[in-house]
Design goal:
P_typ_ATPase, 7-stranded antiparallel beta sheet, membrane, alpha+beta, translocase, nucleotide-binding, Calcium-transporting ATPase, cytoplasmic domain N, 7-stranded mixed beta sheet, 18% strand, 645 residues
């Protein structure tokens, strides 16, 4: 019984039964001379294929909606009444096939969502009372230790607390290359272990995982309507009754019922109704596969119109991780290692972002700093004054030397200015009232930053604007490397908002890329707010108009390019649908197009529209993974070359 029930619920069952009855109706009269039996089979075929159509049309009418099903129902019933049994059977049979194809193809365009759901693991291995226990993923408790073995799916979001391994994170970030995971790294549910063995502390389980949030967002996005789709829905609400009125008027004026019924069938806006949603579902699905979450059809449509992209600098164009690039020794009695040692002693108790870079550089050169300074005195806007190991250490800018009345030799000024000109932050180190050296600290420009700017231009963006709170000198240095079109420096968060608003006032559609904290006002004001590296961030996934799950800049031009392709696809589908209906109506009025032929062409147009939308599911361009050796990366400061504190 269950097999029969499954077979009856299959989308192709009704078209198959109806088709067999039509074949029987065509074969029986010539062989047995039983025309009446053939008519009965034709009516039976129309009833089998048309029952669901009539029910659907009646339900829609009860809800005050005049839809396609109602038009086909009236045409089929009318054809049976006037003895056009073949026409009734053909129309309902073709409509049933069209509906089955439409359902199958829409399911295909939603394949990205189905794949995301499929990667969600069902079981997890956790450590309980010192033993490995296999449980369902829903039973994992926050904070529990989960074991991830080679080849297994990660069942939770969490932090690696032991072991090493590589994970395939394509389901989350869209990146095909496995990512190495070490202690302290973040992992996501649904990713697959390709090597190694990890112990993971669960920080997100069940519906609180990144994968669950992505699935929820893609579901909502694929159902969200674009402005064009809303317009087409309103158009269809007027168009369908208009076709019914036209058919009635033509039937009354010509006294030709068959012509009137044919107009009803031919005028069905099936391809028109499906033209936009199928493109949106396919476009958003393709984006999800590539690690790009687009909030909905409206934002997809707006993204296609973007003319200006405004980007924050630190953490976007740059890596956001400063490192020491230069150590200039200015005292003949002091070595490079000693300059780093004095600087590291001073920074050991500092909370400033640059302190980590100096401590890391000292560690890389074998300098170990133990204990803390006897006293630490931050000097706002200038640097820091420290007493350590019996010595008075200053580290900061020229203004700090001036405050402590330390002689500012030309060599010091020249070294600091040279580093600043290169876009690096100069940190002058003085010990016991004597300048010993200048350290240059810089952030790294992302290897793909220049390529992103070029790709944005290729995607149709007219201008890429950099917005930064850093100095103009530093901003210009980054601009020269990345090739941005316009630079705005020394900005406060409200200044960024004003610039975005000014760009919009000039008629631009603006996308803002930022970290969502100090850039929040500008992100909210922009036509499209983009969050980069949003994997694991619930806020970014839920609030950003576009969320780039990976930390790859090249995803941004990919997203804009895909949005433009999707909108172009929608326009193509609308044109196909309208031209088909117009030509069919003309053919009916001029003669030569029957109800069955019209329905066949109509369903063919639906299929063409669907196949056209399916092209969006193909990946037209896969960005190559950019690997740049550390020594070849371009260091540019993202912190500022003037007052560092």
């Amino acid at each position: 019984m269950s097999a029969i029930r499954i077979w009856m619920n299959n989308r192709w069952t009704i078209p198959a039964i109806s088709g067999v009855l039509i074949i029987a109706a065509l074969v029986i009269p010539p062989l047995f001379g039983a025309e009446a039996v053939g008519n009965i089979f034709m009516v039976a075929a129309a009833v089998v294929a048309g029952t669901r159509i009539v029910i659907s049309g009646a339900r829609a009418l009860w809800a005050h909606i005049i839809g396609i099903d109602l038009l086909v129902s009236i045409a089929a019933i009318g054809a049976v009444i006037i003895g056009q049994y073949w026409e009734a059977a053909a129309v309902t049979f073709l409509f049933a096939i069209g509906h089955a194809l439409e359902t199958a193809t829409l399911n295909k365009t939603r394949s990205a969502l189905a794949e995301l759901i499929a990667v969600a693991p069902d079981v997890a291995i956790v450590m309980r009372d010192g033993e490995q226990v296999e449980i369902s993923t829903g039973a994992v408790i926050m904070g529990e230790t989960v074991l991830v073995k080679n080849g297994a799916k990660v069942p939770v979001d969490g932090e690696v607390i032991s072991g090493t391994g590589s994970l395939d994170e394509a389901s989350i970030t869209g990146e095909s290359m496995p990512t190495e995971k070490l202690i302290g790294d973040q992992v996501f549910a649904g990713t697959v272990a390709r090597s190694g063995f990890l112990q993971v502390r669960a920080t997100g389980v069940g519906a609180d995982t990144t994968l669950a949030r992505i699935i929820h967002r893609v579901e909502d996005a694929q159902d969200a309507k674009a402005k064009t789709q809303v317009f087409m829905d309103r158009f269809s609400a007027w168009y369908t009754p208009a076709i019914m009125v036209l058919a009635l008027v033509v039937g009354v004026l010509t006294a030709d019922v068959v012509l009137a019924l044919t107009l009803l069938v031919i005028g069905c806006p099936g391809a028109l109704v499906i033209s936009i949603p199928v493109s949106i579902v396919a476009g958003i699905g393709r984006a999800a596969k590539d690690g790009i979450l687009i909030k909905g059809g409206e934002f997809l449509e707006t993204s296609a119109k973007i003319t200006v992209v405004a980007v924050d600098k630190t953490g976007t164009l740059t890596m956001g991780r400063p490192r020491v690039t230069d150590v200039i020794v200015l005292d003949e009695s002091t070595t490079r290692e000693q300059v780093l040692t004095w600087a590291a002693r001073a920074e050991a108790g500092s909370e400033h972002p640059l302190s980590r870079a100096i401590l890391d550089a000292a560690a890389d050169e074998g300098v170990r700093i133990t204990g803390l300074s006897e006293s630490t005195e931050p000097v706002p806007g200038k640097g820091i004054a420290v007493t350590a190991a019996g010595h008075h250490i200053l580290i900061g800018n020229l203004a700090l030397l001036e405050q402590y009345k330390i002689a500012d030799a030309d060599a010091t000024t020249n070294a600091a200015n040279e580093l600043a000109t290169l876009g690096r932050t100069p940190m002058i180190v003085a010990v016991d009232n004597r300048v010993v050296g200048v350290i240059g600290v810089a952030d790294e420009v992302r290897p793909e930053a220049a390529q992103m700017v070029a790709d944005l231009h290729a995607a149709g963006v007219t201008k890429v604007v950099m917005l930064t709170g850093d100095t103009l000198l530093v901003a210009n240095a980054i601009g020269a490397v990345t090739g941005v079109d316009e630079i705005h420096a020394s900005l406060l968060p409200e200044d960024k908002l004003d610039i975005v608003a000014a760009l919009q006032a000039e008629g631009h559609v603006v996308a803002m890329v930022g970290d969502g904290v100090n850039d929040a006002p500008a992100l909210a004001t922009a036509n499209i707010g983009v969050a980069m590296g949003a994997a694991g961030s619930a806020v970014a996934v839920e609030t950003a108009d576009i969320a780039l799950m990976g930390d790859r800049l090249l995803k941004l031009p990919e997203a804009i390019s895909l949005a433009r392709r999707t909108v172009n696809n929608m326009r193509q589908n609308i044109a196909i649908a309208l031209i088909t209906v117009a030509l069919l109506l003309l053919g009916v009025l001029l003669g030569g197009v029957t109800m069955a032929i019209g329905m066949l062409v109509h369903e063919a147009s639906v299929l063409i529209v669907i196949v056209n939308a399916m092209r969006l599911m193909r990946r037209t361009r896969q960005s190559a993974t950019i690997t740049v050796a550390p020594e070849t990366r371009t260091p540019i400061t993202a912190i500022g070359s003037t007052p560092r504190r």
